[in-house]
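4.2 Preliminary Data

To establish feasibility before requesting continued support, the project team ran the inverse folding procedure on a target of 627 residues. The structure was first converted into the token representation described in Section 3, and no sequence information of any kind was made available to the design step. The complete token record follows.
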């Protein structure tokens, strides 16, 4: 289109008027003095504070932490700022409903966090097709989250508001972690840990309609701290769950009354005790499962029984039965990270040991019974170097696994984290102990007859090796390969990165051995391997890199500098390196069995420990109790 000076001047004038209107409502003496003269210079610069221009048009506004005190609702200045790509008014005292930004369809970044906005998040934001970042945290916004699904959206935060309802299941919104939604007591569903119940969502819809119809009133100021808010949510959710269970029982009791006689006549024997109990435990959320029969008398009085609550969380060990799903829902939860198969949370319950809750997604389409069977296999694999599964929850909408919390975090962090001055050295002997702990866990999984899986671990990497308070190895994520759907498993599990999968499309126990070899190399070289590289980073193909180093005789240079300087490193580390290289062999048949590896690492450990005694006197901070 031809350049039309009159149109340009009109737009320029309208933008100036809009900014003057903004200035008047902000009523800041600084802006009153500073925002004078033309807002954009001919070279696209601006002498106005917080304004950036391009081609004479205002494209960015940054007015952050200026104590601006205004009711945003009164301002419709933004209608004329049609070239705006960035608006940041964060950390002011702007109150009122959010304005309609639908005229600003070039907007990429909108930051209104840390203000006093109330009312709902306007659906008009859905029309901003280029939106990359939306920050609305720390306000008083209410109502549901609109169904944002812009593929451009990279940053999103609505935490610490009063939003409610279930988080829309759009790809765009589900891509963000729980932190983006935290401290909204009535918000539920993934990625938060709050479980939504259908009737709860229905109540929300009714509420939402009311909310949409008229602008919200200013909120009553709440002085409730966040932690208290979180507890209130969890209590509220717990309460809802209790009511839900009550209805469920009531319905079940009526159904059973009808069915009871028929079943008696058939003389059906109940299944053996433990299985029957499991079926009872999981049936609530499952469709089409035969429900075990109990008399109505038994059902009576049990409706809101706390026992039912316990059953919804299936405990692997009787003695671990010290909390209920309700306790978990009330616990304070801290997001630990997003894994390949879902989010991980640390839950701290009053007076109890912290646990880790893993929400599993991308599952195979297993029936309820099959899922339970697979989890029983996982649960019954017990070894001092395997992270114990404590309990699980299996409903139609949620699959949660509850594990022991490992205080010292992951091996990945132990190797690569904190390389600064206050790093606690990761000595050779400790590394060998870790290598042995992992090898023993893997050996157990490989020899254990309960596990029928072709690749018993399937996802061995340094982020799945945890360390407890004494740096004892606890290998996690074992057996998940049997419940994760293909092709997700092939894309994300470590064993599918092995050379044989690339050529034959098959994995086996020996793929675990290959993963162990890569992990050993990561432990020895402190280089991030492709198997453990966090999302967005690239790891190294350690097996081929190390083989090249050995071929070209620069082996000594590959070791982590921290151990390369240790006297005892030379022999022990070299032997470990040789084991790693054998485990990495291209052809699975040439890799050793884990039993063989365990024996060899044990003998290295015994020898290095005696040689290392002198060195240890230099560093009392490390105890070698990894086994
Ligand atoms: N039992 C645990 N104790 C302490 N921290 C844990 C525990 N389980 C997981 N974590 C932490 O939570 C993070 C996410 O764990 P998660 O297992 O979901 O993902 P991952 O190990 O990074 O990848 P993957 O999904 O392939 O296992 C881990 O990196 C770890 O820091």
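Position-by-position output of the design step:
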């Amino acid at each position: 289109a031809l350049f039309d000076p009159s149109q340009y001047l009109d737009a320029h004038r309208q933008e100036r008027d809009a900014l003057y209107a903004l200035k008047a409502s902000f009523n800041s003496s600084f802006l009153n003095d500073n925002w004078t003269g033309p807002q954009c210079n001919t070279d696209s610069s601006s002498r106005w504070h917080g304004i950036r221009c391009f081609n004479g048009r205002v494209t960015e506004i940054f007015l952050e932490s200026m104590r601006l005190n205004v009711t945003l609702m009164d301002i419709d200045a933004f209608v004329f700022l049609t070239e705006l790509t960035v608006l940041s008014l964060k950390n002011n005292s702007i109150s009122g409903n959010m304005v309609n930004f639908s005229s600003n369809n070039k907007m990429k970044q909108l930051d209104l966090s840390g203000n006093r906005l109330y009312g709902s998040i306007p659906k008009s934001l859905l029309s901003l097709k280029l939106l990359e970042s939306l920050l609305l945290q720390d306000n008083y916004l209410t109502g549901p989250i609109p169904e944002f699904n812009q593929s451009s959206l990279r940053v999103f935060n609505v935490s610490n508001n009063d939003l409610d309802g279930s988080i829309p299941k759009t790809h765009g919104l589900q891509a963000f972690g729980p932190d983006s939604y935290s401290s909204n007591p009535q918000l539920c569903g993934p990625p938060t840990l709050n479980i939504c119940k259908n009737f709860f969502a229905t109540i929300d819809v009714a509420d939402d309609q009311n909310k949409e119809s008229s602008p919200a009133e200013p909120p009553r100021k709440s002085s409730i701290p966040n932690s208290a808010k979180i507890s209130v949510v969890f209590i509220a959710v717990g309460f809802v769950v209790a009511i839900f269970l009550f209805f469920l029982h009531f319905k079940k009791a009526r159904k059973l009354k009808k069915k009871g006689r028929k079943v008696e006549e058939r003389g059906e024997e109940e299944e053996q005790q433990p299985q029957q109990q499991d079926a009872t435990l999981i049936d609530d959320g499952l469709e089409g499962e035969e429900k075990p029969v109990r008399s109505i008398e038994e059902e009576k009085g049990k409706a809101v029984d706390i026992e039912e609550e316990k059953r919804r969380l299936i405990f692997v060990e009787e003695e671990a039965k010290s909390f209920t799903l309700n306790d978990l829902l009330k616990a304070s939860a801290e997001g630990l990270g997003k894994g390949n198969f879902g989010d991980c949370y640390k839950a701290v319950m009053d007076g109890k040991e912290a646990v880790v809750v893993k929400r599993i997604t991308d599952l195979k389409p297993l029936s309820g019974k099959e899922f339970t069977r697979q989890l029983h296999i996982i649960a019954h694999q017990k070894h001092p170097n395997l992270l114990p599964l404590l309990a699980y929850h299996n409903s139609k909408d949620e699959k949660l696994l509850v594990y022991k919390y490992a205080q010292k975090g992951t091996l990945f962090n132990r190797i690569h984290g904190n390389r600064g001055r206050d790093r606690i050295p990761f000595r050779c002997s400790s590394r060998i102990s870790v290598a042995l702990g992992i090898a023993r866990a893997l050996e157990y999984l490989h020899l254990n007859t309960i596990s029928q899986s072709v690749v018993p671990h399937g996802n061995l990497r340094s982020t799945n090796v945890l360390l407890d308070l004494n740096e004892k190895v606890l290998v996690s994520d074992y057996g998940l390969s049997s419940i994760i759907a293909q092709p997700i498993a092939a894309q994300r599990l470590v064993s599918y990165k092995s050379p044989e999968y690339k050529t034959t499309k098959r994995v086996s126990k020996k793929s675990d051995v290959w993963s162990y070899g890569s992990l050993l190399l990561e432990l020895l070289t402190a280089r991030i391997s492709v198997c453990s590289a966090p999302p967005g980073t690239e790891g190294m193909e350690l097996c081929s890199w190390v083989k090249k180093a050995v071929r070209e005789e620069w082996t000594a240079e590959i070791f982590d500098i921290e151990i390369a300087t240790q006297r005892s490193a030379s022999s022990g580390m070299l032997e470990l390196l040789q084991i790693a290289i054998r485990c990495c062999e291209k052809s699975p048949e040439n890799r050793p069995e884990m039993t063989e590896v365990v024996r060899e690492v044990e003998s290295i450990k015994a020898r290095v420990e005696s040689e290392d005694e002198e060195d240890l006197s230099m560093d009392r901070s490390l105890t070698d109790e990894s086994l």
